[in-house]
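Data card: per-record layout.
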Amino acid sequence: MRTLLANRIKCVVALLVSSGAATVLHFAWGRDQDRWDYMTGWTLLALMLVLAAFSARKRLSFLSFFSAAAWLQFHLYAGCFAALLFVIHIQFRWPIGWFEVGLTGFYAVVTVSGIVGIFLSRVFAKRMGARGGDVLFEQVPAIRRRLREEAESLAVGSVEKAESGTLADFYARELHDFFSRHRNSWAHLIELRSPLNNLQEKISELERFLDTDELEILKRIDQLVKQKDGLDYQYTLQWALRLWLFVHIPFTWGLLIWSFAHVVLVYGFSGGVGVD
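The structure for this 276-residue chain is written out next.
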């Protein structure tokens, strides 16, 4: 734990020092130098290529010269520095012309989605671990179906076992839709447990109308309700993490393509001066 904290402190210090040095250099010398735009531009492009390599590192496990955790830390702090370098490259001004606006828009989406993604991955990982965890996203439909089939079997079986349709009617009215599909996504995202609490209150209220056999069945159904709610919780958080990647990665490659087009336009049509 201390080693992790020490590494983070070193990374933060390195980020602050490099950011401060780049900012001071820009205002003290770079603004009046034509070469400064080229230096910052090429440095930024090289840094973006390195940052994009993080995606390849996650997919190609044989690239093990650095651990995934080390790559992630570098990706985070280098990404923050790249954001500052981009602002320096455009001279701390609002973009002019559709091309600069597009380039800035791509960079803004990539930067903001990256920050959001780091926050979500760290917060959601802790939350998922606290409520079970280790549920593969691809296995969720099969587990949901198993829970539904067991709950339905118990509810239908209670009619014959207890010679009463009270529990079966309750399942059809209150639980059928709950077990049939994914539920309460927004509540799970904001850590709100009132939907589950409301459902369990209804289950508790039903107990006084049941006999001993039905109470045993209801106890098991209540356990299945909790498992289903936990499964929906895991699914919601994993889905949110995947949705973030569907934003961050495509926009990252879009940014790289737009950046290469920027290089071509600068060198090919403006004599290296700049492009609107």
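Known properties of this structure: Residues 2-133+247-269 form one domain. The chain is about 80% helix and 0% strand.

See the next section for split statistics.
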